[in-house]
Each structure stands twice: as structure tokens, then as C-alpha cells.
Design brief:
single chain; 128 residues; mainly beta; 7-stranded mixed beta sheet
């Protein structure tokens, strides 16, 4: 059983930056692919970014490419999401998730059904 705890959310102005962290415990963190998803108010949960177990492969939703960066530190059991050039439409609850086996195709890693463990979420609000 893996526990995931997100932190780093808050209020930012448009054009600003935030860095989210997701700390994992209770499992072998380095064996999991990790993803970030977000859920705006009244909308479905959407894929944001993914990173493979080693950190050697990443991918992003088109809406955040060039602005967000996912990374991981396996020694610290933590995955990060650096968010730059924030926009009001980035406002959402952000969730990290872990997948023990993940086919490296966007139809799989962009689907929330591919992830087994989820954090409780952290709110990000971007004001215009």
C-alpha cells in the first residue's frame, strides 16, 4: 500500500509559479511511474504530466507543455511538478498518482484508470 501526500498548492497570480510536491511512503517508490492530474471545479479529472520510474521519460498534456515540468527524486521518494507561467485556467485541485505497471503510450498513461494509488489533492488557484 502506497500513501501519497501532495503539498505546495496555493494562490498565485497569472504569470507566476508554484512547485507541487508529492511525497510517497509505504512502497518501493522507484518502481512506480508517477502522474499528475488536475480537476477544475465542476469538471472531470484530466491528465497533466507523467514520469517513468527512472525519470528518463516524461510527457505532458498539450495545455501545459513548455510551462510545467515533472521530475522525481527517488532518494527522497518524491515527485515534483514545477508550474511556470500560470494561467487562470490552471486553477484546479491537483492530484499525484502512482502506477505499478504503466504501458508507455499516451492512451494509457493519460488515463486515470491506469493509476492505482492517489493522493488527497492540493488546491491551486491562479488569479488574473
Amino acid at each position: 500500500q502506497v500513501q501519497l501526500v501532495e503539498s505546495g498548492g496555493g494562490l498565485a497570480q497569472a504569470g507566476g509559479s508554484l512547485r507541487l510536491s508529492c511525497a510517497a511512503s509505504g512502497g518501493t517508490f522507484s518502481s512506480y511511474a508517477m502522474g499528475w492530474f488536475r480537476q477544475p471545479p465542476g469538471k472531470e479529472r484530466d491528465f497533466v504530466a507523467v514520469i517513468n520510474w527512472s525519470g528518463g521519460s516524461t510527457d505532458y498534456a498539450d495545455s501545459v507543455k513548455g510551462r510545467f515540468t515533472i521530475s522525481r527524486d527517488n532518494a527522497k521518494n518524491t515527485v515534483y511538478l514545477q508550474m511556470n507561467s500560470l494561467k487562470p485556467e490552471d486553477t484546479a485541485v491537483y492530484y499525484c498518482a502512482a502506477a505499478s505497471f504503466l504501458i508507455w503510450r499516451d492512451s494509457y498513461y493519460s488515463s486515470h484508470r491506469s493509476y492505482v494509488y492517489w493522493g488527497q489533492g492540493t488546491q491551486v488557484t491562479v488569479s488574473s
